[in-house]
Write a structure and sequence with these properties.
The protein has 603 residues and is mainly alpha-helical. Helices cover 83% and strands 2% of the residues. It has a domain of 145 residues: Leucine-rich repeat, LRR (right-handed beta-alpha superhelix) (Alpha-Beta Horseshoe). It has 10 helices and 5 strands; from the N terminus they run H-E-H-E-H-E-H-E-H-E-H-H-H-H-H. Strands 1-2-3-4-5 form a 5-stranded parallel β-sheet. Helix 1 packs parallel to helix 2, helix 5 runs parallel beside helix 6 and helix 8 packs antiparallel against helix 9. The longest helix is centred in the middle third of the chain and has 135 residues. The protein starts with a helix and ends with a helix.
């Protein structure tokens, strides 16, 4: 046997650093002081064992070893099942075990059948269940524990099971809500990134179109320079013709009629070119009016967008005020419920103390009466014996008197026992009435708790409505994006119109150059037309550049507003998520702190 105990001790010391063993069965090894100390050390150091079976040992015989075992159990946070059947555990050992259970938060099943716990041990285990919320199963059969204590233990274990189920449900709900919030955040970030990508692409397209237009303008400038060089060559040719005309002055008289005719044609051409210039000026004025109308329409759209943004901000402020008011109402209701629960518990404790004091008083009175009767009987017996010794002659008479005194004592004892039974029955009836009254109060408290839960559900509905409004805001932001795309399309169309206008001007310039080459006599008028056309080109290019800069400024302002709206929407969602977490934490705290929940659920 000593060799077996040493082997078990070495085994337990080796398991202290083990991390793979989940279940340990040491049934029927007659473990005593050394084994209990080794088991206490094992439970203090090992974090992997979930099940420990110690049936048919003698751990409860030596109180010091069992106390060391209980200290290790109190320090353990991984063991879930413990079997201590047939270990000779008395009420002292049960007290040590109750102290360990108060500090242990992982043990779920404890088997203490066929020990010697008794009434005191049962009370100690019942008291520890008020602070231990993890134990779900406790077997106490074969321990001489009264039935009322067993029922109270079963009620406490049912309370722990209900509490564990509610905690698991709330944790699952919290996990689901956090996952949904993370999914929403991911979706919004993806949408924001897509929007930024589209905006960057549009900016690149605008920059590319600007570069293309700048290249085209440079090409036009080069063409104008070529035309200037052609004009210079034409000027040189004119000088040569003037020299030829000086030599041919003699032919002037003959060619007078021809010159008059040519002058008439030149006048007609000047009038025609003047009409064309007026027409071009009118077209430029029409284009400027069209651009001004487009700018006014864009400004009106911006005003409408600003008004809508102000309305959305007002709605968000109203929702925040409503959520704050609901939070204050919830805190007030929880505080009232806690106060009522504390008052009910204090009343229960007062009633229990009164009942206990009355029972103790009745018991002390009964004991005093019994002692008084026994003392009276002993005194009467002593006097009778003295009289028998002194007066043997009248012994028969004294025996008759003694029998009469005994009969009277028996009758008095019977009367006293009947009165005691009546008093006990009356006390039990009073206790039942008080318990019924307390149960009615508990029912009222459960109704108030149900009302608080309904308030919490309403607040959750308000949170869902706020989320729906946030989705509406996101839809409105999508509408703003579509409007920005429409404005960009308008800009592209205007750029195309500008390109077509430049091409038209280029064609007209080419036509004018052809006319200049064909009609050398009208070169001065053509020079004036070319200068006017150059001025118009400069004005048109400057106007188009200013319009492009204004449109880019408007686009940047709209993008900044869109980013601000996205930031406000993300902030509102984060605040809503935080408020939902606060509500869940408040509900969990209320469920964990309410000791009367099990009574209401069983009803």
């Amino acid at each position: 046997m000593n060799y077996l105990r040493i082997c078990v001790k070495l085994l337990l010391h080796g398991l202290c650093s083990n991390t793979t063993v989940k279940s340990l069965d040491l049934k029927g090894n007659n473990l005593r002081t050394m084994g209990a100390e080794a088991l206490g050390k094992l439970l203090r150091q090992n974090k992997s064992i979930r099940s420990l079976i110690l049936e048919w040992n003698s751990l409860g015989v030596w109180e010091e070893g069992f106390s060391f075992f209980c200290q290790g159990l109190g320090a353990n946070n991984s063991l879930q099942r413990l079997d201590l059947r047939n270990n000779q555990i008395n009420h002292h050992g049960a007290g040590e075990l109750a102290m360990a259970l108060k500090r242990n938060a992982s043990l779920q099943e404890l088997d203490l059948r066929w020990n010697n716990i008794g009434l005191l041990g049962g009370r100690a285990l019942l008291n520890c269940l008020h602070s231990n919320k993890a134990l779900k199963r406790l077997e106490l059969a074969g321990n001489n524990v009264p039935s009322d204590i067993l029922k109270a233990v079963e009620q406490a274990l049912d309370h722990n099971q209900d509490r564990q189920t509610i905690l698991s449900e709330t944790q699952n709900r919290a996990c689901m809500l956090s996952k949904e919030i993370l999914n929403l955040k991911d979706e919004k970030t993806k949408q924001f990134l897509d929007l930024m990508d589209t905006i960057d692409k549009q900016r690149e397209e605008i920059a590319r179109s600007g570069r293309i237009s700048a290249g085209r303008v440079s090409q036009l400038q080069e063409a104008l320079k070529e035309q200037h060089s052609i004009m210079n060559s034409v000027k040189a040719k004119l000088q040569m013709t003037e020299a030829a005309l000086a030599l041919s002055e003699q032919k002037v008289h003959n060619l007078g009629e021809l010159l008059s005719a040519m002058k008439q044609e030149q006048a007609n051409m000047v009038e025609r070119h003047f009409a064309e210039l007026q027409q071009q000026k009118q077209e430029g004025a029409d284009r400027e009016g069209k651009l001004f109308r487009d700018l006014s329409a864009c400004s009106e759209k911006n005003l409408l967008l600003r008004n809508q943004v102000d309305e959305l901000e007002k709605k968000c402020k109203v929702q925040q005020d409503q959520l704050f008011q609901l939070k204050q109402d919830l805190t007030n209701t929880t505080a009232e419920l806690k106060l009522r629960a504390v008052q009910a518990e204090e009343r229960l404790e007062m009633e229990k103390r009164r009942l206990k004091q009355s029972l103790e008083d009745m018991e002390s009175l009964r004991l005093k009466e019994v002692d008084h009767m026994t003392q009276h009987m002993e005194a009467s017996e002593r006097s009778l014996q003295d009289r028998v010794q002194r007066l043997e002659a009248i012994r028969i008479a004294l025996e008759e008197e003694l029998s009469q005194v005994k009969a009277a004592a028996l009758t008095e004892r019977g009367h006293a026992e009947e009165e005691l039974i009546k008093v006990r029955n009356q006390a039990r009836l009073d206790e039942q009435q008080r318990l019924e009254h307390l149960q009615e109060k508990l029912r009222l408290m459960t109704e108030s708790r149900d009302e608080a839960q309904n308030c919490c559900l309403k607040q959750k509905q308000m949170v869902s409505e706020a989320q729906a409004k946030a989705s509406q805001l996101s839809l409105h932001a999508d509408g703003l994006r579509r409007r920005i795309e429409e404005l960009q399309q308008d800009l592209n169309s205007k750029e195309q119109e500008k390109v077509t206008e430049v091409n038209k001007v280029k064609v007209e310039l080419q036509e004018q150059i052809g006319h200049l080459q064909a009609e050398r006599t009208a070169q001065e008028g053509l020079r004036e037309k070319i200068a006017a056309l150059e001025r118009q080109l400069k004005v048109l290019s400057s106007n188009h550049r200013e319009a492009l800069l204004d449109k880019e400024g408007e686009i940047s302002v709209l993008l900044e507003k869109l980013r601000m709206k996205e930031a406000d929407i993300s902030r509102m969602r984060e605040e809503e998520a935080q408020r939902a977490n606060l509500l869940q934490n408040a509900i969990m705290a209320y469920v964990q702190g309410s000791p009367l929940r099990t009574h209401s659920s069983r009803k």
